[in-house]
Design a protein that fits this description.
Elements: E1 2-7, H1 12-16, E2 23-27, E3 30-31, H2 35-41, E4 46-52, E5 58-64, E6 73-75, H3 110-116, H4 127-135, E7 141-144, H5 150-157, H6 165-174, E8 179-185, H7 192-203, E9 209-216, H8 233-254, E10 259-261, H9 263-269, H10 291-301, H11 320-323, H12 326-329
Helix pairs in contact: 7-8, 8-9
Amino acid sequence: MIKVTGVQPESIGEELGLRAGTELLSVDGRELEDFLDWEFLTAEERFLLHVRHPDGEEIEYDIERPLSESLGVSLEPPRIRRCANRCDFCFVDGLPDGLRDVLYIRDDDYRLSFRYGNFATLTNLKPKDVARIIEFRLSPLYVSVHATDPVVRRYLLRNPTAPEILPQLRHFADQGIEFHTQVVMSPGVNDGEVLRETLADLYDFGSAVIGCSVVPVGLTEFSKHHLVREPTAEECRAAIRLIDERAAIARAERGAPWAYGADELYLRAEVELPPAEIYGGFEQVENGVGAVRWLQRQIEAGADELQGWEGRRIGVVTGTAMSRLMPMVL
């Protein structure tokens, strides 16, 4: 069941009498669980919609409409799947006390991975979830792999019951599901030969794994420094060499780098950032991969709009890590 939170004026939903508080129960006899059910099950020109209005009246509507016409209803947000892992580098642990409650939510939700590009570990999937991902073709998914070695991965996740990631990915890949993957690199744990093996294992999936980014672990003064540390400049340079090694193979075989380092990896290594061209469509820019080059391109694209600003002084507010790069970006 999903509750309606709002209805657009002059929409099909308003015409049917749907309103805030109406419960959407089923489509064509199939019970509705969340926004995914709603979007996929109503993606037909004709369907039966069973609802319960706030006054308790239940009605089944026989709806026929052009696919281009939305029903015009807003839905309550889904209950977020919580993370069962306890990674030492979890960004939530790096937050101070006293912030808004929502900032402390540890999400690990395949639905948000598909919809918004949130990275998920897939460790909390139930058989029903697996079937749903395949049925609805939820692709691509964004997956936090960290390591393909099951022992190392369980250690990083602090989850001794985490399923092996390679069989999970293989099952989905065989059904046509694709992935963007990431490795959060914790020095002394999943770098070095473990990282080399992880990149090789993921690359062997072929086109099912669209790419893999390597992100250095990021900590704040509130993080678990007694359990994890940030990589040194040399450790970051060593990781970049492994990324370049795999990227060279990918360029020769597939025409694109496939393996990428996050901007932070290059900044910590004190190595020049790669050119914008290697990032393709900037698929993992929200993960900090190619973010600086993406910003450069955005500024260049909007340069014409700033012509009237010549001779004027402009203030730019940025974080300390980005501040030294602003002259290059601007």
